[in-house]
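batch job 7 of whatever, protein = N-acetyltransferase domain-containing protein
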Amino acid sequence: MPSIDPIVSTYTRPSAIPEEVWWVFEANPATSNIIYAQALKTRRAEQKGRPAAPGQAWITSSVMTRGGLVPDFILSCSEGAMGSYPIFIFTTLPASSLRPELLYARLYPMAHALYKAVSTQRVYSVFAVDAVAQMFISIWTKFTGIAPEPEAYYHAMFSRLPRRLFRDCPTTRHHGYDFDLRPATVDDIPRVAALCKGFASTSDPFTLDNAGSMREARVLVSSRQVWVHTARAPDGREGIASLVAFTRNTDTVSAITKVYTNPDWRKLGCAERLVRRVCRYLLLEQGKEEVVLYVAHENAAAAGVYRRVGFLGLNGAPADGVDSWIEIGLDQRRVKLGHW
């Protein structure tokens, strides 16, 4: 039987995180991707002599079993190329088991550890499975007096595409149109930036100005984590119609983190064509075992695209590890927004 009282530990750099936590990541590479990928990237940078940025924290809550210490809640407060990330929380426990009394007992000491580790201004939002995020925000508000924003920033379904379920098919064509699907190059940066800005404009409060979108485009292109769908119309118009970015990557799993189509090129199937091509690249050419993503509950069109490519749990049918996640923001007057 596991111990009743959880053991909570805080680490300020990934290289200090113990092996039992990495084993949990490795055993759950898809569902932990939102924390695992950045922690792994930062640890590998540390191993090359680049220290982790200050002000970060990874907090684990573990139970003692006959087999030893088992972490089953992991929280990250980390930094990315574009700024501070939200507080991410991952649990190995199934969503159906997350009763309020269990969550309170597990998350209260984690919130207390976070309160001691970072400034309250740093905690601008929390993203986790619905019940986890809601309970953590309730506890955090009691600690800090900082209330949540009236509306959630993001409410989405986490979905996964195992390689065996990928629905590959020949690239569809439209009469008179020429299409090319490929990794973005340095020459594409200004047009990729325009699409990054367009995507961010739909993601309030995480919008980007021209300088911010150019910075993000340079990061995506230089890291080879963005593909583009170019198009030429019968009337001679040409441009980048869509982009797909995949910025959270581990040895076995990649996460699609941005899909956006220029409004001038919609209704041509560009997003689905490019998502399918990127999944083919990641699963069949790069050898990833799964691709994962989040899709907003209200975005039925995007869910339809992903479902046709093979992503699970987007047709109302339950699927293992496919759960609803919510990002709850905190009073913007009292926190400092990051970007993700």
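notes: The mean pLDDT is 96.
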